[in-house]
Amino acid sequence: MKSDIEIAQSAKLRPVLEIAKSVGLTEDDIEYYGKNKAKVDLSVMNRAGSEGKLILVTAITPTPAGEGKTTTTIGLADGLRRIGKKAVVALREPSLGPVFGVKGGAAGGGYAQVVPMEDINLHFTGDMHAIGAAANLLAAMLDNHIFQGNALDIDKDSITWKRCVDMNDRQLRYIEDGLGGGKNGVPRKDGYEITVASEVMAILCLATSLTDLKERLKRIVVGYTHAGKPVTAGDLKAAGAMCALLKDALKPNLVQTLEGTPAFVHGGPFANIAHGCNSVVATRTAMKLGDYVVTEAGFGADLGAEKFLDIKCRFAHLRPSACVVVATVRALKMHGGVAKTELAAENLPALRAGLPNLLRHVRNMKEVYGLPAVVALNRFPTDTDAEIALVMEECKKLGVNAVLSTVWAEGGKGGEALAEAVVALCDQPNAFRYCYDETLPVKEKIAAIVRKVYGGDGVEYTPEADAEIARLEGLGFGKTPVCMAKTQYSFSDDAKKLGAPEHFVVTVRDVKISAGAGFVVALTGNILTMPGLPPVPAAEKIDVDENGVISGLF
Predict the structure, then answer these.
(1) CA-CA distance, 310 to 504, in Å (whole number)?
(2) Is-catalytic flag, 69?
(3) Does the active-site annotation cover 515?
(4) Are strands 519-524 and 482-485 parallel, antiparallel or unpaired?
(5) % pLDDT > 90, the chain
(6) Rounded distance between C-alpha atoms, residue 263 and residue 282, angstroms
(7) How buried is 180 (Cβ within 10 angstroms: 0-12 exposed, 13-18 middle, 19+ buried)?
């Protein structure tokens, strides 16, 4: 059996201009980044004409067994093309942190991948580097302002802005810098976060033009004065230079699937610590070029889908037509209490015990957000017919349509049945709505998410979180959406509570304002914005030969 990278490397890619022309773009609309990658001009997004139907692909609560959400997203787009629909796929860019850490790449798998897989998973078109450079420029200008006399009277102990690097590096979570005295800077406590958690990433993914990008950058709050007044990137006169670094990064990237379906891969905020969706410009551009646009949101529906719907759709005035919830028998058995080492054996009782996790996610999409939904059961070779039948039967009992997906093994052919089901859903009227009114007080918005989406009983706040919410609301930052930073492994804030836990309380330990992005971030449990590497990082298996051929990337 070929590995993902071997499948990708054996594929015959079409020239990117050919892919562009297949959706009505001309050579003047694109900028080449080699033979198989291009950036698309921002003007395409604003062309006159109708927009395609938007399909969100989300998933159950993730487990180490894997769900295959990105693989399903790609296979669904290929399946739509196979049944005669003009489809485009819109995905996030992978972060180097997971690529070299535990998860590996994020370009799909098997015969449902976006290519060139190695480029997409590594440096791609340089967007991640530009985002990191812009964030670190702001940090440098902030510290330089203090060093040069601190005309804004910034309290260095209240600085909230962090430097970033697109790598899992726990050593940088908490640091002291500016050491050495004199010309070496002003000593202070500092820290790094992974680039995909930076507010600059969130801003890039929500901005709709260079003007909008610059205005959002100006609003970034980097800290406070000794009098408690917010200090912004605009106050530091940093937004123009930051925008210059991000000028090309804002343009969406065009590549292709293994079957030649046009794919926009752009932006990549994590869904457990940021809003977890690809860029608005990529989604909007895809909707101008395709009749059906398939996009995904990170982790389970309680994280990525909630933020896609409550944050991205609200800001960009998007209205999804349908939702796909991806599940696997393996992951459901883990939610039912089976150890990862025992997943190959048939276990119907454990499968039945894990099904409530899937059903809660589906219920949320249908009842909380008013979207028609279908379950995509992503089949693994070890799944038995009895296990597949049980999932299908239980979904049917509750009025949920479940479709078997075999896109990993068969590509678009294995997604045809799912494509037919999605087209039928898109033709239905829907009552799409948000989970909460953004003008509500911060605590009421958080409570709505916890009760309606997570299924919890309520929320507790640390004294620090209480005080910060009061301060932010007093400064006029309260009437924005809320971005929950929470473990991806549970509906609750406790990663050990699998399945569909009940009667739990979520603890908010801190909050912060992302004024440029336009939301308040609520940090729960022990969530971190800088991950660490595992005992055996994926990086140890990655290599490159004399001819430049990469191996070990997955």
Answers:
(1) 23
(2) yes
(3) no
(4) parallel
(5) 91
(6) 9
(7) exposed
Point out the catalytic residue in the list 161, 270, 299, 315: 299
Catalytic choice (161, 270, 408, 504): 408
211 noted as active-site residue? no
* pTM for the model: 0.95
Identify the active-site residue in 197, 271, 322, 353: 271
Cα(503)–Cα(143) distance, integer angstroms: 46
Catalytic site residue 92? yes
Q: Is 161 a catalytic residue?
A: no
The tokens for 43 are 């003007």
Instruction: List the beta bridge partners of residue 224.
Output: 230
Give pLDDT tens digits for 300-346: 999 999 999 999 999 999 999 999 999 999 999 999 999 988 999 99
Q: Is residue 408 among the annotated active site residues?
A: yes
Hey, which bits of 311-447 come out as E strands?
Answer: 322-327, 373-378, 401-405
Going by C-alpha positions, the residue among 91, 102, 472, 454 that lies closest to residue 303 is 454
Of 275, 216, 276, nearest in space to 243 by CA: 216
* Catalytic residue chosen out of the listed positions 37, 53, 69, 218: 69
Closest of 528, 42, 107 to residue 279, by C-alpha: 42
Whether 380 is catalytic? yes
CA neighbor of 350 nearest in space, from 406, 391, 318, 314: 391
**Contact (CB, 8 A) for 404 and 388:** yes
Residue 396 designated active-site: no
Q: With contact defined as beta carbons under 8 Å apart, do 71 and 294 qualify? A: no
**Active-site residue identified among 39, 92, 219, 443:** 92
Q: What is the pLDDT of residues 34-52, one digit of tens each?
A: 999 999 999 999 998 899 9
